[in-house]
């Protein structure tokens, strides 16, 4: 009997690690696993070849995720890569949307413009998800957990939201992620207040609040304050869930 090799590409996602470097040194991150491999950037020529093949075969994936363990915005060709996806989707989109995880510290005007352009639904059918790894509501806790400057992150978020409002566009869905752990669980309510304020001050409606107690993937349909648990053994995760629920009241 002949095997059926049909693949429903509309349900597939493609993860491309543009950078295995990171500009932060979070204690809980796999970046500290030096046995993984040498760090590097993806060659732009390889990236183009992958996107070209999708376009030539007229395949539309569910999503393209231009990240993995590293910080993609460190790649010197980050903007050109997003623009290439946009360009190659002029006839038929190579994906329904883009999903990008980032710590958000490296956004500048050019990076914001490229991300908003590929999320404007003129080429890709859905607005896409921008997941911002934040995990704190104060400078002190952010420096403790992520070893970065919280003020820069907040300023970058404000610039992104204000530019999206100026363009009167829907996407991307901005997901403000907060991983609940011992060092930050007391800031859950403060984090919600901060993000609501950032959104409304930038002319957007308040985001919804979502909680994934079992860290199961969620579908996002708009701006979202997203709480999930730090990866740990089941007993420890249950303790973190209890801490979160206690603070939420």
Helix and strand topology:
Layout: E1 13-15, H1 44-56, E2 61-65, H2 78-88, E3 95-102, H3 109-118, E4 129-133, H4 139-145, H5 150-166, E5 173-180, H6 188-201, E6 208-212, E7 224-229, H7 234-248
Parallel strand pairs: 1-2, 2-3, 3-4, 4-5, 5-7, 6-7
Explain how this protein is built.
This protein folds into two domains: 9-20 and 41-98, no CATH class; 127-249. The mean pLDDT is 92. Strand 3, helix 3 and strand 4 form a beta-alpha-beta unit. By secondary structure, the protein is α/β, with parallel strands linked by helices. Helix 1 (44-56) runs parallel beside helix 2 (78-88) and helix 3 crosses helix 5. It contains seven helices and seven strands. A seven-stranded parallel β-sheet has the order 1-2-3-4-5-7-6. The relative contact order is 0.11.
Shape: globular
**What composes the largest sheet?**
7 strands, parallel
Treating each run of at least 4 consecutive H or I residues as one helix, how many helices?
A: 7
Q: Biggest sheet: strands side by side, in what order?
A: 1-2-3-4-5-7-6
Task: List the secondary-structure elements in sequence, H or E.
Answer: EHEHEHEHHEHEEH
Give the strand tally: 7
Sheet-strand content, in percent, reads: 15-25%
Q: What value does the average pLDDT take?
A: 92
Radius of gyration: 19 Å
- Structurally, the number of domains stands at 2
Give the structural class. Answer: alpha/beta
Q: Separation of termini?
A: 59 Å
Q: Can you tell me the residue ranges where pLDDT is under 50 for at least 5 consecutive residues?
A: none
The percent range for helix content is: 25-40%
């Amino acid at each position: 009997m002949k095997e059926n090799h049909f693949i429903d590409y509309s349900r597939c996602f493609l993860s491309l690690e543009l950078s295995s470097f990171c500009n932060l040194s979070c204690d809980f991150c796999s970046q500290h696993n030096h046995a993984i491999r040498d760090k590097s950037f993806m060659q732009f020529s390889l990236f183009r070849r992958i996107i070209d093949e999708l376009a030539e075969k007229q395949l539309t994936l569910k999503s393209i995720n231009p990240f993995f363990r590293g910080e993609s915005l460190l790649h010197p060709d980050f903007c050109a890569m997003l623009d290439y996806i946009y360009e190659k989707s002029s006839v038929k989109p190579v994906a329904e949307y883009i999903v990008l995880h980032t710590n958000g510290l490296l956004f500048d005007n050019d990076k914001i413009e490229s991300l908003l352009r590929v999320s404007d639904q003129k080429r890709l059918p859905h607005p896409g998800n921008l997941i911002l790894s934040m995990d704190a509501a104060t400078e002190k806790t952010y420096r403790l957990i992520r070893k970065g400057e919280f003020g820069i992150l907040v300023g970058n978020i404000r610039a992104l939201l204000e530019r999206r409002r100026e363009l009167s566009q829907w996407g991307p869905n901005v997901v403000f992620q907060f991983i609940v752990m011992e060092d930050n669980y007391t800031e859950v309510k403060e984090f919600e207040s901060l993000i609501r304020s950032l959104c409304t001050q930038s002319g957007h409606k308040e985001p919804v609040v979502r909680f994934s107690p079992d860290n199961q993937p969620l579908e996002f349909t708009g701006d979202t304050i997203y709480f999930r648990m730090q990866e740990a053994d089941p007993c420890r995760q249950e303790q973190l869930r209890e801490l979160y629920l206690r603070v939420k009241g």
